Amino acid sequence: MSWGTELWDQYDNLAIHTSKGIEFLDKYANFIRDRLAIETEYAAKLRRLAKNYQPKKKEEDDNEFTSHQAFRNVLKEINDLAGQREVVAESLQLQIIQGITLLSKTLREERKKCLSNGTYLQQNLSSQLSALERAKRNYEKAYRDSEKAVDNYKKADMDLNLSRAEVERYKNIMTAKIQQSDDAKNEYANQLQKTNNLQQQHYNELLPEVFNRLQELDEKRTRGIREFIIGAADVESSVAPIIARCLEGMVKAGESINEKEDSYKVIERYQSGFTPPTDIPFEDLSKQDPESSQESHYNNVQSSHLTVKGTISANRIKKRVGIFNIFGSNKEDFSDLPPNQRRKKLQAKIAELQQKIAQETAARDGLMKMKVVYEANSSLGNPMTVEGQLNESEHKLEKLKIDLKKYQGYLERANQIPMASNSPQANRNNLHNGHRVSRHSNGSTEDNNEDGDDQPDDGGSLSSSASPESGLGTSHTSLPGSGQGSAHDNAMGEDAYYETEMELLQPLGTCRALYPFEATSEGSIPMNEGEVLQVIEIDQGDGWTRVRRLNNTNGWDEGFVPTSYIECTLYA
Gene3D superfamilies in the record, alphabetically (predicted)? Predict the structure, then answer.
């Protein structure tokens, strides 16, 4: 079935049909362009989504949890998904859009040629039909004129009144008209034969060829749409395995979450190394002398208000400031952290320094090899250019080794500090219930009971986040007004507290500064290496010892210093 034989008389309809077909192809191209824009926008929004939910710098510490790690892996898979959507968009642009554009341009040009050729054939046939019509009209006129001339001659020949000359004239006119009629007849016959031949060739050969060419173009367009639709699906199918792997990665990320492991990491992060406080011993007031009773009463009042720790400076109370900045440290040796956290920080710092030393050593070795090569072959380079870099590398390496040795010393001293059997509050409760813990220069402790009863040793030099500025921890210098009660009671308690505080703070021993200390926070005081100070409050498990020194200007300077920076000798 071909258009040339079946649709020989549908030239105009075929022209309209082929035009609509190309318009439909352009419509499909616009559909692909809109889809491409959607894919591109979707990929961009996926990437923006993954970027917006990337862990912030302040959240880096939480990256050790499996749930956070899984979420980071999900974000990576989302990025990969966005990449695949970009691949789809790019493939649609290169394989489909460009193909449709090229095909549409080719079809328009070929259709224009076919229609131009068809129009020419139609005009040529119309011209021949017009010539045939003129020849027919001329023949009809000549034939009528010849018939009339014959009639006039016959009448003249039968009319006896006409002369011989007039009859001869009618005869000549008749002969001329008959000749004109014959000539017109021959011309009409020739035009008719020519028209029939052209018409037969037009409808059997020339115009079917044009129609068949239009059919080929239309079939090419239809076949192209089929290929483009399949191609678009193939583009999607080509990335489907990668998208499936992305989804599998998300599933694996979800399956990697381990709630027990996260719980263990929470313990590792926040474990202080302290043990819960022991039971508070019963105080039998009937067996104590009045002075002990008064001190016990004072301590009991204090134990109900263990909220804020302070020091006496310039004859007034300074509160420890800060919040629960759990296990944060601003000290080089992390001495203000609990034992477990301090060891972890020191071990992490040592590992970091060892890694830097390894990197710097590799860089130094590379520079040394380069210098040897330059010395062996000066054309490759000047060895003096490497000398400066080599000296700088040696300097960095030496500094790193010094830092490593320093932190290894910190870790060694941290490992030698005995673990507390009770929390800081327990230590203070024991102190407030009539016990005094004496610390000797070797780091051991003695628990002296005024009644002479032996008590278990639960002291020790500990480091904690309860620095003077942190506000974490308690002592017998806590303000009494922090508990429940009326404002009048609190005011009276504070006045009595100030007076009692000044009377009770008797030196417990002396200490010598092992290292210099710069006071950077409220409540602490500086000290020089080798300086001897009075100990007026021992370390209560928070890593700080309360000391004072004689000041010629205003009497006494009093404050807290790190326990790990001093060597204490307490009175027996």
Answer: 6.10.140.470, Arfaptin homology (AH) domain/BAR domain, SH3 Domains
Low-confidence ranges of the chain (pLDDT < 70): 288-330, 417-504, 553-554
- b/e per residue 94-131 (b: at least 16 CB within 10 A): ebbbebbeebbeebbebbeebbeebeebeeebeebeee
Q: Which two tokens stand for residue 176?
A: 């001329």
Distance from C-alpha of 111 to C-alpha of 119, rounded to nearest angstrom: 12
Report residue 87 as tokens: 């691949």
| Residue-level pLDDT at 461 | 36
pLDDT at 117: 92
User: Residues 408, 457: contact at Cβ < 8 Å?
Assistant: no
Give the pLDDT of residue 290.
55
Q: Is 23 buried (19+), middle (13-18) or exposed (0-12) by CB count in 10 A? A: exposed
The residues facing 513 across adjacent strands are: 566
Instruction: Give the DSSP per-residue string, 346-377.
Output: HHHHHHHHHHHHHHHHHHHHHHHHHHHHHHH-
8 A C-beta contact, residue 514 and residue 496: no
pLDDT for the residue 329 = 60
Q: Provide the whole-model pTM.
A: 0.51
- The reported pLDDT for the residue numbered 456 is 37
Name residue, tokens 């990025």: 79
